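Lecture 7 notes: from sequence to structure.
We start with the chain below.
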Amino acid sequence: MYYVIIGLYVLVCLLLSLVILLQQGRGGDIASAFGGSSSQAAFGARAGATLLTKATSVAAVLFMLLALSLSIVGQRGGGPRSVVSGTPAPPASAAPKPLVPPASSTAPAAPAPAPATAPAK
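Predicted structure tokens for the same chain:
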């Protein structure tokens, strides 16, 4: 479920970016700054809501809803899982445990060498 929501979220992000970039500016060009626009309004002529503005509104609402649902699913523990075992992945800050060499029980311990004695005089 988590990956389905992420896929939809990425798709909505791309769609929202595309729809925003396709829209025409609202009289913010250089001609309107010097009084060259044909409208007497302060920000140029206002057109009605076009298909692109409606698509922008729908994509923005979907963007917010999917972001909220991703945060809820992530808090409940439905986030990414380990591929190998299916258990939740360990946190990235967990330090690995040091490896302890195994005790070999097959080789006996070497006896300590006997001290060398000097001949008595």
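Points to note: Residues 1-25+50-76 form one domain. The chain has three helices and no strands.
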